[in-house]
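Page 47, continued from p. 46.
Same chain as before, 271 aa.
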Amino acid sequence: MQTDQLDKAVEYLRQRGMDAPDAGVILGTGLHRFLDYVTDQEIIPYAEIPHFPVSTVEFHKGQLVWGTVEGKKVLVMQGRFHYYEGYTMQQVVFPVRVMRVLGIRQLLITNAAGGINPEFKKGDLVSVNDHINLQTANPLTGKNWDGLGPRFPDMSRPYSERLNQLLFEQAACLNVELKSGVYAAVNGPNLETRAEYRYLKIIGADMVGMSTVPEVIAAAHMELPCAAISVITDECDPDHLEPVNIQEIIATAAGADQKLSKLLQHTIRSL
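Result:
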């Protein structure tokens, strides 16, 4: 990552009035209804932001939304970037670094994930309490910029205990069931084989996806508290595995979108 690229993106967004946000939010596959709770919206397509990647996945909108939720200023990524799109890991996490330099104090991440834990069913919301990184590249590879964080950041607790506690408190208030589990990140874009699901279960994964972990690593590097919620979109039982396609995954995520969005709204209000 070139630091001048980061500076140019930050300066452009500050000129558009995006300064000192309270929180950043990343919306995953099939998830967008949270924007219904964002008022005074200003929308900037990624293509207009200097050095921002552009979403190549059709169901990721590809725009940054600046607005207010429950009196808190938020920056919302409607669409993220993935390593499987051909981007470097540094490009994947570039927006998180931009948001941090702009001033966000916490980051809330959402994603769609396959459920490996047999207790997880389609449409369940799961708070990520830890992860297993099986991706083959790392956003911290290369020269370290000491202005962002240390060369060897600690990853003993990459998910904020405070934010997770808030999520569970607000879920209880809303009568929304929120489970907890370990997320495994793989490269994608193909889904997994039966043998791979068995392997993931053996090593301790409760769910699997192709995102989130790079952003969490970048957040930990910058000492940015973060939390992540997965929507379980398919059940990955290797002994009863049914073919699944991306349209079904999007539809399942959309079905859980309202309760997830309400949970995000109430959590931001309690920050």
